[in-house]
UniProtKB/TrEMBL annotation:
PANTHER family from the UniProt entry: 2-IMINOBUTANOATE/2-IMINOPROPANOATE DEAMINASE RIDA (PTHR11803), 2-IMINOBUTANOATE_2-IMINOPROPANOATE DEAMINASE (PTHR11803:SF39)
Family: Belongs to the RutC family.
Protein name (record): Reactive intermediate/imine deaminase
A cellular component annotation (GO) from this entry: cytosol
Lineage: superkingdom: Bacteria
Entry-linked SUPFAM superfamilies: YjgF-like
Length: 128
């Protein structure tokens, strides 16, 4: 897969570990459902800690990416859902550790609540 990172000075610079846009030609696209910080075997939240939930949600997402035949480098778009947007910086720091550059495109949405009382959810578009 060949990703082309789209960047223009005519739109705001990314304010975190993400690209303005990513283009991919001639590949299979996989749309991943949202993942929250559930422990895979118990189905319970891994922790009450926001950071713990974020890390587990990404681990769950990467497990689905791998099951689809991809790696983290194949993730081209993320949508993040946070119940507390003041914790946005924590997510950015975790993403910088998890994702290689060039970063995927990303949107972040503040929400009132998530399933099972989760504080964070991530969904992805993967191109293989």
């Amino acid at each position: 897969m060949s990703k082309q990172i789209i960047h223009t000075q005519d739109a705001p610079k990314a304010v975190g570990p993400y690209a303005q846009a990513v283009a991919v030609a001639g590949a299979k696209t996989v749309y991943l459902s949202g993942q929250i910080g559930l422990e895979p075997h118990s189905g319970e939240l891994v922790s009450e800690s926001f950071e713990g939930q974020v890390k587990q949600a990404f681990a769950n997402m990467f497990a689905v990416v791998q099951a689809a035949g991809g790696t983290k480098e194949n993730v081209v778009k993320l949508t993040l859902f946070l119940t507390d947007l003041s914790k946005f910086g924590t997510v950015n720091a975790i993403m910088e550790d998890l994702f290689p550059q060039p970063y995927p495109a990303r949107s972040t949405v503040g929400v009132a609540s998530l399933p099972k009382g989760a504080q964070f959810e991530v969904e992805a578009v993967v191109v293989l």
